[in-house]
Every structure is written in C-alpha cells, then in structure tokens.
Write a structure and sequence with these properties.
With 300 residues, the protein is of the alpha/beta class. Helix 10 packs across helix 11. The protein contains eleven helices and six strands. A six-stranded mixed sheet has the order 3-2-1-4-6-5, sandwiched between helices.
Length: 300
C-alpha cells in the first residue's frame, strides 16, 4: 500500500513566493498542463496565486493522449472560462497558435493601451505549471531558439527567467511547482506515471504494479500487443509484471523474473508512448470553478 506522499523541495517554496511577487508584473497567465492527466497535473494553489489575471490553459502532450478525451477536456476548461490551446511542444504541433491566442485573450487591454497612445506596448505573460509538463520546451518553440533550459527531468528550471520572444511579447518562465502533500494518492500515482515526480521518491516496482493494474482495467489490449500478456481474472499488478518479464526473458538466477528490470522497462515505454496513447482522467460532470474542486474529481 502506497503511503501518503510528501514532495515539496525547497526551490518549489521559493517558486511560490516568486509567483506571488511577480504576478503584478504580467498581463496574463498561461498554465501548461498535461493532456493525459489534466486535473492531476494542475497545482490547486495556482488559481489563488494568479487570481484576477486572464488565463490561458495549454493542454500539452496531446500527441500522447487520447484525442477524443482531449476534446472533452478542452471543452471543459472553456466552460470554466479559460482560453484553451492543444499542443505537442516537443514536435511543435499547435504552438504557433500561442501569440494569436494571447492577443485575442488580451484584446480589450491592448485596445486600452492603444487608446492611451501606448501602441506596441510589451505584453507580458507568466508561464506556470508543475514539473515535466513541457514549459521550457514550449517557450523554446515560441522563441524559435533554446532560451529556457529544457530537460526531461522534473524541476530543472530553478529560477524565474524572462524570455523575449519577439513581436512585443515577453514570457516569464517559472520553475515547476507541486504542493506539500497529495491528499488524493491516485493523483500522486498519475503524476508518477508520467514522470512529474522523480522515480527516486517512489518504489519503481510498486509504481509499475499500480500501472499494470490500471492498464489491465482500462487498456488490456495494449498489454497483449506490447508484451503478449493476456489479463486473466484475479491477476494482480505484480502477477502481470512477472508475466511480462517472463515474456521478455528478464530472468535471473533460479529462473526468477527480474521484476525491477521489467518495472523500469514498463515505465520507460509508457512514458515514451510505446504502449499507445492514454488519458488517465475524464472531466468532472459538473462545471464549477476549478479552485473549488478537490483532486479526487475527474479520476477514472
């Protein structure tokens, strides 16, 4: 049984303070979330920290998510009053829509600037999001060059960075920020599945067993296609991990399966979309302000 997960490195607390100090300097806030886990990849504190600013939600990694469910999530966030974009920042898909979207979001403010004789005044947008949702990659795509350090490792951006992307637009890149304690452990699991929480924080075999159980329940065909494993009644996640490891030939002395090796392979292949495209949550039925929702909502 997974214990309550606490994960709040010191630099994330510093980020929270930096957001509070910088929010008055920006015209709008762009929140990058993961299209595979839209609610679990949102820090609930962001709504409070950025209250009063026009908001743009970017559903990133859409190339790894279930496209039909992405459309449902996009409609959900629009009903909540946010502008919405769908992107795959790594390949650049959808990113070119960012500047027009921001200008449309801030059309009234830009018009007021013009009426005051401030035509061409620089627009500043804060980019926020949890670790590993692709903020830096997204910014680099917009800027057309590598200005914000990007790396596939949670928490690599350590301090606020202003990035001039041209066209009278500046972006404030902030480090990824999680929260002190995950009250909903299912949300913590989904974050761990996509790599938003360092693997060192959790036991990789335990994590793989939970993922096997999820896939067996919702996407059993992918286990057959990828690992030639048939899900049978009563199979636990550990049973399936052993089956897959045996099929792959991951054996150690005595003919036992190297479950740690299989666990690492499973997590790597899931994150690289080699098992398919998955969305691990569905939108809540009712539309309420997101700041008032608990992390339990929307879980499949």
């Amino acid at each position: 049984m997974m214990q309550d997960l606490h994960y709040f490195p010191g630099h994330m607390k510093k980020t929270q303070r930096a957001i509070e100090e910088s929010i008055k300097k920006v015209d709008a806030v762009c929140e990058i979330i993961d299209a595979r886990i839209p609610l679990s990849s949102r820090n609930p504190d962001i709504d409070t920290l950025t209250a009063g600013k026009p908001r743009l939600v970017v559903l990133n990694h859409v190339d790894q998510a279930d496209s039909a469910k992405t459309k449902l999530w996009a409609a959900y966030f629009r009903r909540c009053g946010y502008a919405v974009m769908e992107t795959a920042a790594k390949s650049g898909t959808g990113v070119k829509e960012f500047v027009p979207c921001v200008r449309n979001l801030l059309a009234e403010k830009i018009q007021r600037y013009a009426e005051k004789g401030q035509v061409g005044r620089t627009i500043r947008v804060m980019i926020v999001g949890i670790p590993n949702v692709g903020k830096s990659t997204f910014i680099n795509r917009i800027a057309g060059k590598t200005r914000a350090k990007a790396e596939n490792r949670p928490g690599v951006t350590r301090s606020n960075q202003w990035v001039n992307v041209g066209g009278g637009l500046e972006l404030l890149d902030t480090p990824g920020i999680l929260w002190p304690k995950f009250e909903d452990q299912q949300a913590a699991l989904r974050l761990a599945f996509i790599g938003a929480i360092r693997d060192e924080v959790m036991d990789i075999e335990e994590l793989a067993c939970y993922l096997m159980e999820f896939l067996a329940k919702h996407y059993p065909q992918c286990l057959m296609e990828r690992y030639k494993v048939a899900v049978e009644e009563g199979d636990s996640g550990y049973d399936l991990l052993i089956k897959a490891g045996r099929k792959r030939g991951f054996l150690i002395s005595g003919g036992e399966v190297d479950t740690e090796r299989m666990a690492k392979i499973l997590m790597d292949e899931f994150r690289d979309s080699k098992l398919g495209r998955f969305t691990l949550e569905v939108p809540p039925v009712e539309t309420e302000p997101l700041a008032e929702r608990g992390q339990n909502d929307g879980a499949e």
